[in-house]
Write a structure and sequence with these properties.
Elements lengths: L6 H11 L6 H16 L6 H14 L7 H9 L3 H14 L11 H8 L4 H14 L2 H15 L4 H17 L20 H17 L1 H9 L3 H14 L7 E2 L2 E2 L1 H15 L3 H17 L5 H16 L4 H14 L5 H14 L4 H5 L2 H6 L6 H14 L5 H14 L2 H18 L3 H15 L7 H11 L4 H12 L6 H20 L12 H13 L5 H17 L4 H10 L6 H15 L2 H7 L26 E2 L13 H8 L19 H12 L38 E6 L2 E9 L6 E10 L6 E10 L3 E4 L14 E9 L8 E9 L2 E9 L9
Helix pairs in contact: 2-3, 3-5, 4-5, 5-7, 6-7, 6-8, 7-9, 8-9, 9-10, 10-11, 10-13, 12-13, 12-14, 13-15, 14-15, 14-16, 15-16, 15-17, 16-17, 17-20, 20-22, 21-22, 21-23, 22-23, 24-26, 25-26, 26-27, 26-28, 27-28, 28-29, 28-30, 29-30, 32-33
Membrane topology: Peripheral membrane protein
Keywords: Cytoplasmic vesicle, Golgi apparatus, Membrane, Protein transport, Transport
Main location: membrane
């Protein structure tokens, strides 16, 4: 047989070819030759062939056919064969393949081998890919090697024990006696792996943690080792950039953090050594910074003294001055975590943190911005807002929304005066009006309304702010509203806070009309401007005729919302002119409503957020509490409103949870949702039969959904006794060849409606249109608004779970007018 090429030869060929991967044909030929060699049971070149196969595996080619050959090499008596065999086992085998169980006996024999290097190979393999079954069978041998005096084997046995504990936690107590003398070892490799083993045991078992704290007195031993590392002289074997074994120091600090957490005695025992590490560690190299960072985390996590915590925060402050961006980012992140507990200590580094807002790195900018907002209080509000407003002017667009939101919240909480509050919000709207939250406009309007003494000053400032610039729509909306409410104060020049400007009635109307005709103006903003012009008909005396002409022009606008307003205002001029002054009088002082849940969020189009409300499930099952909150996200509602699902009994446990995947959870911490008392539903007193016998004839049926063989039609009924109630009967048909099972229909409507879902006729939709599933929906529409609905469908079909979301906007006018 020709001599097989070595792995080095193949690697040289790859380098000489100038490409990262050898030619596919060449690799296929090589694999074929290796297979032939394996079939011929060629023991001479088996080791070399497996080595080549591992090289191919690292290049991404399939090498599974060499698994059994690895087992044969492991069973060999030659060390060179065993080495390649164990390496191949670690690369090609894992616990998902039953083949790995065949080498359990070989590993057991090698763990008892007379040569330490063979024992080391077996320990490495077991610690790398040992399954739970192998770990149970071989844990005894690992425990024996953990007690041996050979440092080479002890360190490998300790790491193997870590893997055994992770796979079979109940075997943890087997290794407890062997851990008593591990920390007395002088070899740093054994010390390092021993600390890793002790850390794993403490993290996985509270009982072990308590045992090491009280019985083993582990903290004093770790303190002694750490002190020796700090005080020891230069050791070339362990020195890294002038620091003795930083890897061991970091591991010990992490274990001390676990032992000192929520324990006064352990924390007190390690306070001195932590202070010593924090003051004596060199900071000119990254090695020292890594140790200091772990020291800071340990100090912050245990019950340390206040002076020690200040020292830790000062270390983070020094990190902020480091030229390395990664160190600055780590410092900002750590300070952000500690600012709530050590606020005053972090405040001392406020100027350094604010300087980080000017950093070129966007990650550092974001962390600095978040930390800056966390540092804002009543004492520094003016200075911090000045810096943050400057940052808002110059920052990238992706920061503007979060920065504007943070400024709004801070100004509302710590504003020193109403004028300062109004000026700050107006500055934000002028700078980043397109990025502010949707509720910024109504909140500022409320603030202005409640600041009676600031009305003249505010309307004058807003008037000057929007002259010739309508790019910031929220600012234009607030300005239009204020000019409509307080236009008389603007014209009269009653501003006392600053020098008044001379403005005529026509000039005010010119600005509002230019807002109406500007291409930059949104539909909502035009509504604000038209309403403001209408209000000025009662504030201005000389321009009423001009206002009538403007309003009448928009009576034929293509914008339906604007047209509706103009038609109503025209009717007010013509038919109800005697009521106009009373209807358009100045708005009273607004009281801010407080709710038990999150505040309502206004939508950009002026519509209210939708809310979902469903009826009770069948009596055979109980509704999970958290499902009520899950359903609220169906249309994005933030109000905590009772929600009751209509899922069949066997789907109750999952119907609400499935909405989380698509729409997000309102209760991300996993805590139980708040118990909300169910108010009486407006339709609860209505039965489905007697009150809906009078059916409004001629309402056409609409197809609400048709996809993947599923078709859902809506049929409508109206009650003569209560025309505000519409009854919708859904009819679901299945044209595919298999039944659709576990069908769940869910619906949501805007909060101006009330919706009630009755129980469905079945949870199965028969195939081939041989039957239909029906379900009744009752909708209360007291304001006779156009009906809109969003539906969610969940069902199982052909062995797969299906779900889809759709909107229904094509309801016939007869169903809601």
């Amino acid at each position: 047989m020709p001599t097989a090429a070595s792995v080095g030869d193949r690697a040289d060929e790859t380098k000489q070819s100038g490409v990262g991967r050898p030619d596919m044909n060449k690799m296929q030929k090589e694999c074929a030759a290796i297979r032939s060699s394996f079939r011929e049971e060629d023991n001479t070149y088996r080791c070399r062939n497996v080595a080549k196969l591992l090289y191919m595996h690292m290049l991404g080619y399939p090498a599974h056919f060499g698994q059994l050959e690895c087992l044969k090499l492991i069973a060999s008596q030659k060390f060179t064969d065993k080495r390649i065999g164990y390496l191949g086992a670690m690369l090609l085998l894992d616990e998902r393949q039953d083949v790995h169980l065949l080498m359990t006996n070989c590993i057991k024999n090698d763990l008892n081998h007379s040569t330490q290097y063979v024992q080391g190979l077996a320990l490495c393999t077991l610690g790398c890919m040992g399954s739970s079954e192998m770990c149970r069978d071989l844990a005894g041998e690992v425990e024996k090697l953990l007690k041996t005096s050979n440092s080479y084997l002890r360190k490998k046995a300790a790491l193997c024990a870590v893997h055994v504990i992770r796979k079979v936690p109940e075997l943890m107590e087997m290794f407890l006696p062997a851990t008593k003398n591990l920390l007395n070892e002088k070899n740093h490799g054994v010390l390092h792996t021993s600390v890793v083993l002790l850390t794993e045991m403490c993290e996985r078992s509270p009982d072990m943690l308590a045992h090491f704290r009280k019985n083993e007195k582990l903290v004093p031993q770790l303190v002694r080792i750490l002190k020796n590392l700090i005080m020891s002289g230069y050791s070339p074997e362990h020195d890294v950039s002038g620091i003795s074994d930083p890897f061991l120091q970091v591991r010990i600090l992490r274990l001390l953090r676990i032992l000192g957490r929520n324990d006064d005695d352990s924390s007190e025992a390690m306070n001195d050594i932590l202070a010593q590490v924090a003051t004596n560690t060199e900071t000119s190299k990254n090695v020292g910074n890594a140790i200091l960072y772990e020291t800071v985390l340990t100090i912050m996590d245990i019950k340390s003294e206040s002076g020690l915590r200040v020292l830790a925060i000062n270390i983070l402050g020094r990190f902020l001055l480091n030229n390395d961006k990664n160190i600055r980012y780590v410092a900002l992140t750590s300070l952000l975590k500690t600012v709530q507990t050590d606020h005053n200590a972090v405040q001392r580094h406020r100027s350094t943190i604010v300087d980080c807002l000017k950093d070129l790195d966007v990650s550092i900018k974001r962390r600095a911005m978040e930390l800056s907002f966390a540092l804002v209080n009543g004492n520094n509000i003016r200075g911090m807002m000045k810096e943050l407003l400057y940052f808002l002017d110059s920052c990238e667009p992706e920061f503007k929304a979060d920065c504007a939101s943070g400024i709004f919240l801070a100004a509302e909480k710590y504003a020193p005066s109403k004028r300062w509050h109004i000026d700050t919000i107006m500055r934000v709207l002028t700078t980043a009006g397109s990025y502010v939250r949707d509720d910024a406009v109504p909140n500022l309007i409320q603030l202005i309304t409640n600041s009676v003494e600031m009305h003249a000053y505010t309307v004058q400032k807003l008037y000057k702010a929007i002259l010739g610039d309508y790019s910031q729509q929220p600012l234009v909306q607030v300005a239009s509203w204020c000019m409509g409410e307080y236009g008389d104060l603007l014209v009269s020049g009653q501003c006392e806070e600053e020098e008044p400007i001379q403005v005529t009635e026509d000039e005010v109307l010119d600005v509002l009309e230019s807002v109406l005709i500007s291409n930059m103006t949104a539909s909502v903003t035009r509504g604000y401007a038209l309403t403001a012009i209408m209000k000025l008909s009662t504030r201005f005396a000389c321009t009423v005729n001009r206002i009538k002409k403007v309003v009448s022009v928009y009576g034929s606008s293509i914008d339906v919302e604007l047209q509706q307003r103009a038609v109503e205002y025209n009717a007010l001029f013509k038919k109800y002119d005697h009521m106009r002054s009373a209807l358009l009088e100045r708005m009273p002082v607004m009281e801010k409503l407080t709710t038990n849940g999150p505040a309502d969020v206004a939508q950009p189009n002026g519509e209210a957020e939708p809310v979902v409300l469903e009826t009770k499930p069948p009596a055979s099952g109980l509704q999970p509490t958290s499902q009520a909150n899950d359903l609220l996200d169906l249309l994005g509602s933030n109000d905590i409103t009772p929600v009751i699902s209509t899922a069949p009994p066997h789907k109750l446990a999952s119907a609400g949870g499935e909405l989380l995947d698509l729409l997000g959870d309102l209760n991300p911490t996993g805590a139980p949702a708040p118990q909300v008392p169910h108010p009486p539903f407006l339709l609860d007193g209505l039965s489905s039969q007697p009150l809906f016998n009078d059916i409004a004839a001629g309402i056409p049926t609409v197809t609400a959904y048709s996809k993947n063989g599923l078709k859902i039609d809506f049929a409508f009924e109206r009650s003569n006794t209560n025309p505000s109630i519409t009854v919708i009967t859904i009819q679901a048909a299945n044209s595919t060849e298999l039944d659709m099972t576990d069908f769940v229909f869910q619906a949501a409507v805007p909060k101006t409606f009330q919706l009630q879902l009755l129980s469905p006729s079945s949870s199965v939709i028969p195939a081939f249109n041989t039957g239909t599933l029906t379900q009744v929906i009752k909708v209360l529409n007291p304001q006779k608004q156009q009906l809109r609905m969003r539906i969610k469908l969940t069902y199982n079909h052909k062995g797969a779970a299906m779900q889809d979301l759709a909107e229904v906007n094509n309801f016939p006018p007869q169903s809601w007018q």
